[in-house]
Amino acid sequence: MAIVTFEAVSAAAAALEAAGEKSTVRKVMNQLLITTGVKGSTNTVTKLFHDYKSGRPLVRATDVGLDAGITQAIASQMQRVAELAASSAEERANDLDDNLKLMMDSQTEAERKIEILDAELAMMKAQATEAEGKLTGAVQGAARSQEQSAKILMDLRQELASEREKSERVIGELARAEVRLEALPPLVEQSDRLQESVEEIRRDRNTLAQSAATLAAQLDASEGRVHEFSERIKILEKRVERADEKVEKLQEIHSNARMQLVLTKMTLHEAQAKTKTNAGQISALLAQIEDMRAASADHDRPIAL
Description:
It is a single chain. By secondary structure, the chain is mostly helical. It has 2 domains: 6-95 and 295-304, no CATH class; 96-284, Helix Hairpins, CATH 1.10.287. 87% of the residues lie in helices and 2% in strands. The chain has a two-stranded antiparallel sheet. Helix 1 (6-18) crosses helix 2, helix 1 crosses helix 3 (42-53) and helix 5 runs antiparallel to helix 6. It is rod-shaped, with a radius of gyration of 54 Å.
């Protein structure tokens, strides 16, 4: 790869001025492309052109009368130094690229974990909300069932008390009728009718007693369901508590992951800033290498002081 040197820039500018044109960086670069086939970078040509405009002197190797062996040794040494510097710069650049890639991979992995934690957190919240809804429904159902059972039991007790009062009144009337029957034979027929009424009332009483027993059994079953609902409510409450604990843990993990992501991004920004700084240093070093190579390129060309 050809290197733009100070003598080449000076020759191009002098040629333009000799042709009656005003020398500029762009015109010098075009002239270099014509004469040497190398246009050169804008920064390098600008620096060398400014040196030319400021009157930087030129010295040729033939002017100082250096021995060819000495000149070759100097050129070889400068070439070796330039190659070592370029190799070191490339290694540093490769190390920086590897570190930057690792940090970017770490950031990608942290973002992926955060997305997974967000999904798990959303799922746990949904499960907790669903469990709370089921718990509320179960509590309301148990409350309604308990209220209905209490009302049925109250109605049965009232009905049983009313039937007892009726039975006691009938028994009292029967006792009085028997007394009158013993005193008054004509009342036998009435007593028979009362006896039949008493039997009918007793049958009704037995039927009511059976109904009361059935209702009491239903009440017991209802109380059993209430107890079952209570146990289910306790289980649901425990599930909700475990879900809340999992949600809290996931929130803590989520917060830690976000903090780690922030730290990773900060470290990545610092690495990028260092990379830019090192890139500037490498560019400056490469420019120096180009100057050193230019100084040792040709013994017959002017050598910049």
